[in-house]
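Q: Convert this sequence to structure tokens.
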Amino acid sequence: MHGDMRWMADAERCERRKNPATMLDEVRTVVSVGMRYSPPAYALDEVNAAQGRGVISAYAHGDDYHDIMKARLEALARELDQLLGRHDQRVYVDTAPVLEHALAEDSGLGWQGKHSLTLNRQLGSWFLLGELFTTADIKEDDKASFHCGTCSACIDICPTRAIVAPFVVDARLCISYLSIEYKGSVPRRLRPLIGNRIYGCDDCQMVCPWNGGLPPPVSDFLSPRGENCLPELASLLLLDDAAFRSRFVKSPVKRIGRERFIRNCCIAAGNNGEQSLLTALWSLAMQDDSAIVREHAVWALGMLSRAENSHAAMQRLSVMQGSETDANVREEISLTIKEIKESI
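A:
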């Protein structure tokens, strides 16, 4: 179920996950930490009703957590040396074969919920995990207990039914995987289910009872920027590579690159119903250098052209098909024309 994330199934990495000593010689202790970030400033029903706007996961509203959290963990390591004496130490922030959720549970930080994320009774799940491996021998904490009971809210809310069983997520269906990790063409049957989510998905967290009514953290070290909270699709669709890099400087969004991001924005535009996005989509479909972008722009045009201007759209698509050089885009054009005809 790992999709294209082949490193998850790599035999050597699997063995390293089982044995922390492969991450640091003579390791005695793993310190598991959580760093809070601000929950979304909108309710779940506002996500689906955000006309003309895209949805970015809350953790990506500000600076990249990899950089921020690693620096804070390195500072913690220095303080541990002052407290306990010099020891070998290594820090990890989602960057190595570390079973971070299992370690968090063993440390008492929280239990693994049915959506696979770590939950804490006071903090919910709005926090990021990091680890400090050390050769220092530190007394261990009690393991966290399970507090999900019979609740299945996260499983029931998932737009693509990616949580196929409690604690089991099929990445090939997960919007976070499809919009962030996956580089290819998003399966057509899944595109309508993605809605207007353009980077990640928080639905399973937003519906969780443990996240209800939590105040924002006193300090959000990720420095969330308002421009990433329900951003306008119209402006995002116009971003070239330089503008994309500038727009998302220091943001985790930047690491997926313009091609994947604009692909995601095209899907959101097709699901949004905003006719004002047609001009930008036509430009992408006809002129963008990326075949992936052109393919998804065509799909979005088909979605928006079923309600009005359907005949004109089919004519333009037919002309475009004659000059299109990519086989996948040509196939998308054919399927889109067929679907527009069927909708008339």
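The CA atoms of residues 242 and 285 lie 19 Å apart.
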